[in-house]
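Changelog-adjacent note: as of this version, every example in the card shows the full chain rather than a window. The one below runs 156 residues end to end.
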Amino acid sequence: MRTIVPIPCVLALLVAACRALPAADDAAPEILADVVSVRVEGEAGAYRFAVGIASPDQGCEQYADWWEVVSPDGELIHRRVLRHSHAGEQPFVRSGGPIPLAAGDVVWVRAHMHPTGYGGRAFRGSAGGGFHPAELPASFAAELETAPPQPPPCAW
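Full-length structure tokens:
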């Protein structure tokens, strides 16, 4: 015996099912640290980088814990460890160096978020040519996440 479901009932079931799905606006935001600026000073072989970061810091449980300079082939050139959350200071800038690069060496500058890792906006460029935002897959040189130096326990 076949059961025939009236069309209004089918439509009501579809509407109910659609309402149960999360809306695109309800999706949880990604918790990532974005590089928002890179300024370079100094001379070849000993540059000093000032990196601006915007991150959804909330204290030691969620904060940007470093920024780093990485070669196009995934070699860690420099890492500036951040020792605490910057929840009340967004975006913030921290400097690091000396960084042993030639003026034309193209590198990536990216930030790391504790506990979610890499994946925010990165910058690409050179000390001589400047830096600009560029797409960098979160999987790029992902093994560097465990490379030294690592941050000490968060101070606050």
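Structural remarks: The helical segments are 7-20.
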